[in-house]
Amino acid sequence: xxxxxxxxxxxxxxxxxxxxxxxxxxxxxxxxxxxxxxxxxxxxxxxxxxxxxxxxxxxxxxxxxxxxxxxxxxxxxxxxxxxxxxxxxxxxxxxxxxxxxxxxxxxxxxxxxxxxxxxxxxxxxxxxxxxxxxxxxxxxxxxxxxxxxxxxxxxxxxxxxxxxxxxxxxxxxxxxxxxxxxxxxxx
Length: 187
What we know:
Elements lengths: L1 H15 L4 H15 L4 H12 L5 H44 L3 H30 L12 H18 L4 H19 L1
């Protein structure tokens, strides 16, 4: 029964979220919390681990939750569930898109999806911000926490490096190194 629940849950997540793993984060969090598969704190820890391992975030977290709740078979069905909708949609639309690319309706739909994806990613960012820095609500103590400033600095450096066309792998490695160093200095 858990295998079917894992598959259907991650199939729904894969089918109804656009924009990749971080856009899926609010829905993954809601589904995992509702079913008791993962707490918000565990999700945040896993995001850190997922960013330092190869593969897409959504696949990594589906595999992690699957193996945790249903063993190897759970990992397989959760992973299949999260990737199958994208695979089917791409398979169906790839041939049709080239034919209808010039359509105003298709162009409008694609234009409408872009801001929605940005909104979903922003929601994921706010969820992480709240869980990491505002667990007990807003307090001025936040501004005395060195990790807040280190996070801001790493974020700003990441944005700057991205705009300067530094390869993403380098941005990830630099951010990870800064995080590790700050962990040793301020923990």
